[in-house]
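Example (one chain per record):
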Amino acid sequence: MRLKLDQLTAALQKNLAPVYLVSGDEPLQLGEAADDIRRAARQAGYATREVISIDTGNEWPQLTAEAESLSIFSDKKLIDLRLPSAKPGMEGAKALSAYCQRLPEDTLLLITAGKLESAAQKAQWFQALDKVGAIVQVWPLQGQELLYWLQRRAERKGMHLENDALKSLAGRVEGNLLAAAQEIEKLYILHGASRIDKAMIDDDVADSARFDVFKLMDALLSGKLNRAVKILAGLKAEGVAAPVVLWAISREARTLFNIKAELKRGGQQESVYKKYQIWDKRKQLVQEALHRLKARELETILQASSDADRRIKGQIAGDEWESLFAICVLFSKSRGLVNVTF
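Predicted structure:
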């Protein structure tokens, strides 16, 4: 059964298929569709989740083993199979076809894969999945589809983008949905549920401010406190809103925490990095931060970020920029003193 992405939510509310294949080369839509399926599975009682990452091709026996194994607690089980290359190979094709021929009870198989070539859709394993389950393919958005997606995303936050604002935002993100989602989140942080005009887009989605925030994150990932503090002071002087800086820092800390957790559970580094959009230029920085910061230290940073958010909103006393400085110290794991006044 083929489903369009915008049909997935309604289909999940009706009933769950035993197998889902979500494929494509647009990472945000791919990830969110898979999250929707996992959420629906949890709500339906699939309490156990087993993750299988196909990296070398030697992992396929794990699928057969999981299909044949029974939980000691008799829980419903979700098998989360990740196939980055979208090419299962001969062994994978056999394993998937065999799985579909003997569907295990109380088990849901979710396969996330890269973009499938047209030849793959004619293969026996793909036809077997199509016959017993649901296949969702995601595509990059352009033109009116991108404008519609941006408006719908904003409306989920209670915002409405005026026509000029919508076109300006689309031009700035250039079809990068991950960047678009981040910019919409930032607009919500700054303006809440409101109408967004072009002037707001021009002011708040400014390239220079965004790049400076990225520079701050690079400094924090590499543990360079002095540089981070200089950038932080510059952001304040330029009038960049404190919530935007906090959003960037807390997002980075949450990403590191999730990566560390998945690697600890046995995830393959390349697959985990790809999931969290860690590309070649940033891999070394992320590895340095993961090596330097323990999970409990990242939890401390996230708690400090939560406190800073309450301080920004006036719910607790204190200076918001001093809070951001303190978080930078935690992030860089520095015991040294830095001369700076906020």
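Caption: The chain has three domains: 2-138, 143-205, 208-332.
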